[in-house]
Amino acid sequence: MDDVQAMHIANGIIDGPVSAIFMVIAVAGLAVCVRRAKMDLDDRLAPMAGLVAAFIFAVQMLNFGVLPGVSGHLLGGTLAVILVGPWVGALCVATVLIVQCLVFGDGGLTALGLNITNMALIGAAAAYVLVALLLRVLPRTIAGLGATALIASVVGVVLASMGFVAQYALGGTTELSLGGIAATLAGVHTLIGIGEGLIAATTVVTVAKVRPDLVYALRAFRKPQYAKAGAAA
């Protein structure tokens, strides 16, 4: 029962070969993020990245047992993508996962690649696609930004949890039903995503009202209306 309290995926839930494959995927994905992040980092983004990583570390400590050896918790990927972009955001989440694993024993060492792939890479990629789409179709207002954060958080968290379902289908070591796992994770992470979305929406709206220039998504998609709304607020 102790494994239920361990954060992320524990050792042995996914077999060795599949875990090794996803470690390679995680390393390759993070290498791309590092290269692309160098083009984004500046005096404005670097301090924000540190704050985002610290915030993600704090919210991920809220942990809920889902399956034996697997837990659900807030991810923070959408918040990171909106504030510091997909490349730096993915690195923030990955850094938190590595520290949690190596220092606090949260998540198995052999499962580190699995966790990074799901929460840092899939989570950030899904969030970025959704944010890019929603910021183009929702009203160009502070409320539209908040709705973007909420919707992207819910969908991004659920998609990240489905990464584990795919990994389990490839190399799961327990007798649990794949359909049951998918249904359980989808249900639990929908609720987690709603909670995370409310936190993300509140945070990004607050920052956008005070300093819209610090919100990466607003700069990247060139929506000056947010700046005017922030000034008016």
Brief characterization of the structure:
It is built from nine helices and two strands. With 233 residues, the chain is mainly alpha-helical.
Order of helices and strands: HHEEHHHHHHH
Average pLDDT taken over every residue: 85
- Tertiary shape: globular
Between the first and last Cα atoms, what is the distance in angstroms?
50 Å
Alpha plus pi helix count:
9
Q: Work out the helicity level.
A: over 70%
How much β-strand is present in the residues? Answer: under 5%
Radius of gyration (CA) equals 17 Å
How are the strands of the largest sheet arranged? Answer: 1-2
- DSSP strand count: 2
* Coarse structural class: mainly alpha
Low-confidence stretches: 1-7, 229-233
3D architecture notes:
This protein has 233 residues and is mainly alpha-helical. Helix content is 73%, strand content 4%. The protein contains 9 helices and 2 strands. It has helices spanning 16-40, 45-59, 77-84, 86-104, 112-137, 142-171, 178-210, 216-220, 224-232, and strands at residues 63-67, 70-73. It has a two-stranded antiparallel ribbon. Strand 1 (63-67) and strand 2 (70-73) form a beta hairpin. Helix 1 crosses helix 4 (86-104), helix 2 (45-59) crosses helix 4 and helix 3 packs across helix 4. The longest helix is centred in the C-terminal third of the chain and has 33 residues, at 178-210.
